[in-house]
């Protein structure tokens, strides 16, 4: 029993150091900007909203509320979701600045755009 007490006492400085290190990492992480999530609904054969402003690193989620499948496909083919079934979703992280126009390959009149900026504000 004495041996286990010594072992526990010997570990205390290491545990305290580990806790202090974790606290420092947590504090550093809390000051970094968080990326937003933007939802685009597919409803009534339209993307809603038809224009989304985002910062680089943000995520866009397309949610299909229609009874038919849709896609989210960049006009320049930089991304293509594949079929998004009814009551399903697909997401992508925005990594390039600029205005990105996209459409549904199954319903080509469905068109919208993402306006991506290097930072918020």
Layout of SSEs?
Layout: H1 2-30, E1 37-43, E2 46-48, E3 51-55, E4 59-64, E5 73-74, E6 89-93, E7 98-103, E8 111-117
Parallel strand pairs: 1-4, 3-8
Antiparallel strand pairs: 1-2, 4-6, 5-7, 7-8
Key phrases:
four-stranded mixed beta sheet; Immunoglobulin-like; disordered N terminus; alpha/beta; 121 residues; 34% strand
The gist of it:
With 121 residues, the protein is an alpha/beta fold. It has 1 helix and 8 strands, in the order H-E-E-E-E-E-E-E-E. It folds into 2 domains: 1-32; 37-117, Immunoglobulin-like.
Secondary-structure content class: alpha/beta
N-C termini distance: 61 Å
Q: What is the CATH superfamily classification of the largest domain?
A: Cupredoxins -  blue copper proteins
Number of helices: 1
**CA-atom Rg in angstroms:** 23 Å
Residues in helices, as a percent range: 10-25%
Structural write-up:
The chain is α/β, with parallel strands linked by helices. The protein has two domains: 1-32; 37-117, Immunoglobulin-like, CATH 2.60.40. It contains one helix and eight strands, in the order H-E-E-E-E-E-E-E-E. It has one helix at residues 2-30, and strands at residues 37-43, 46-48, 51-55, 59-64, 73-74, 89-93, 98-103, 111-117. The strands form two sheets. It has a four-stranded mixed β-sheet, with no helix packed on it. It has a four-stranded mixed β-sheet with strand order 3-8-7-5, with no helix packed on it. The chain starts with a helix and ends with a strand. Mean pLDDT is 80; it is low at 1-31.
